[in-house]
Amino acid sequence: MSVVMAGVGVQPRWVGIGMASPLSTSSSPGINSNGKFRIKMAVTPVDEKKKAYTLQKSEEAFSKAKELMPGGVNSPVRAFKSVGGQPILFDSVKGSHMWDIDGNEYIDYVGSWGPAIIGHADDKVLGALAETMKKGTSFGAPCLLENVLAEMVIAAVPSVEMVRFVNSGTEACMGVLRLARAFTGREKIIKFEGCYHGHADPFLVKAGSGVATLGLPDSPGVPRAATFETLTSPYNDIETVENLFKTNEIAAIILEPVVGNAGFIPPKPGFLDALRQITKENGALLIFDEVMTGFRLSYGGAQEYFGITPDLTTLGKVIGGGLPVGAYGGRREIMEMVAPAGPMYQAGTLSGNPLAMTAGIHTLKRLKEPGSYDYLNKVTGELIQGIVDAGKKAGHAICGGYIRGMFGFFFTDGPVYNFDDAKKSDTSKFARFYRGMLEEGVYFAPSQFEAGFTSLAHTTEDIQQTIAAAEKVFQRI
C-alpha cells in the first residue's frame, strides 16, 4: 500500500475520476503498535433487533419550533430544505456519535460544522471547562487565557503575527475586510463564486453554503451599495482574476483556500501561488478564510499544507473547541491598525471569553500530539474511497475527494473545480441518498453543497459501518 506524504506541495486526494487515492499507513494517535484501536467511546449498545426508525418526537418539536423561530431553525441549512424529510432535533453527542430526541443513534460527519475535530464532548475539554466555569463565564475584560490561545495560534499559523479574537466566523470576515480596506486605502475586493464568508452584506454575492442550498442568488435587504465594490470570479480561474486587476484597484482577494461551502473543492496546482503573486505585484492583500480549514488540514491550516502564506487569515470553529469563537490575524504592521492600537474600529462584548479560550486551548493541545493528522488522513481516505467505490459499483455517477479531516463527494462524474461544476450534481439523488443514510444511522450535512468532517474519535468500525450503509442505500436509490 502506498503511503500518503503530508505537507507542502502535496495535492488533495480525488477518487472516482480516474485518479489514485493512496491511504496512509503511518502510525496514528488512534492505533497501537499491534494495529488495534485504543480510542474509547461511550456508545449506547445496539439491540439485536434494530428498532424501527422514527422521528415522531422531532416532528412534534419542529412543528412547535416553526411557530417560534423563522423556519423553525437558527441557521437555514438545518431545515432540510434541499434534502426534504423531517429535520432532526438532537439531544446529545459524544465522540463520533449523536443521539436525537427519538433515541436514534448516528455516526456524525458534520462535527458541529467543523469544530468537533477531536470528537464531541471530549472529557479533557469538558473537565477544563468545568474548572474555568468555577471562576465565571464572562469577564468583559482581559484574561490570561486570551494570551495563552493567542500564543498558540501565532506559533501555529504562518501568516499570523498578531491576532484579534471575535465571536464567529462571520464577525472575523467582517473585521478582516474592513482592515484590508483601511490598510490599502482601496475599496474593491475579489471573492470567488461559491465561497462563503459569512452573512455580512459585502459577501452575499454568488455565495455558497446556505445561500446555495436554498437556491437564493443573493439576499433581499442587501443594498446595492454594500456589494458594489465586490467583484467575483470562478474558483480556480486565474485568468478572470488577472483581468479584474487590469481594470480595477483591488484592496484584497479573499477566498477559502479549499472550498467547503460549495462542497469540497480543492485548488488546482498553482492556483494559490498565482493569487499570491498577483496580489504582491499589485499592492493588494491576500486573505485566506480558514474558518473551516484552519487547524483541520494541518496544525498550521491550509497555508501550511500548501506552503502559501497570505497577508491576513480568518479562523473559527476548531479554535473554539465547540464554543462560539472567531479570529482574524496577520502581519504585525497590518494588525496594528486595529483599535485601540490603530484607527480601524472593531469591538465585541464576549470576545475572548474564558470558556471559548479554554476549549480552544485544550483542543489545540490534543491536535498537536504526534500522528493526529496522519490518523485523520487515514480514516477520511478510507471513508471516501469506500463511498465512491460503492456508488460506482451500484452504477451511480459520483466523485469525491479529501484532505486530512475534510472531505466531500458529488453525484456527478467530475472532476469538480468550481461552483458551476458542483451544480452539475444530481441534487435529487443526493437527497434520496441523504435520507436513506439517516435511516441507516449516518448523519451527513443536509446539502450537496457542504463539506463533511471526520474527527480523531472516528474509529475503523465507524468507517466500515458507514460504507456498509452506503452500499445498501446506493442499491435502493
Compact summary:
The chain is an alpha/beta fold and 477 residues long. Helices cover 34% and strands 14% of the residues. Residues 1-10, 18-48 and 210-217 have low confidence and may be disordered.
Number of helices: 15
Helix/strand class = alpha/beta
Count the E strands.
Answer: 15
Q: What is the overall pLDDT average? A: 89
Spatial gap, N to C terminus: 33 Å
Q: Catalogue the unreliable spans.
A: 1-10, 18-48, 210-217
Largest sheet at a glance?
Answer: 7 strands, mixed
Shape: globular
Helix content: 25-40%
Helix and strand run: EHEEEHHEHEHHEHEHEHEEHHHEEHHEEH
Strand arrangement within the widest β-sheet reads 5-11-10-9-8-6-7
Beta-strand share of residues: 5-15%
**Compute the gyration radius: what is it?**
22 Å
Description:
This protein is α/β, with parallel strands linked by helices and 477 residues long. The chain has 15 helices and 15 strands. The strands form 3 sheets. It has a 7-stranded mixed sheet, sandwiched between helices. A 4-stranded antiparallel sheet has the order 1-12-13-15, with helices on one face. A 4-stranded mixed sheet has the order 2-3-4-14. The longest helix is centred in the C-terminal third of the chain and has 22 residues, at 372-393.
